[in-house]
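Q: Convert this sequence to structure tokens.
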Amino acid sequence: MKKIYLLLFGFVLTSALNAQSKAEIFAKENTENLSEILEFTEAEYTKVYDILVEKRN
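A:
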């Protein structure tokens, strides 16, 4: 009976670690996507700023 509890505990522990790894991978992918979006909008802001400066001159 003790072995069954140890196996069950091991299974629960492994599941928790696997879930944590999946969450970390998900967070990393979303962070990379957000970084790409922010870089794109920064480039857009730069273009808009350049256009406004040209119109002022």
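Helices lie at 2-56.
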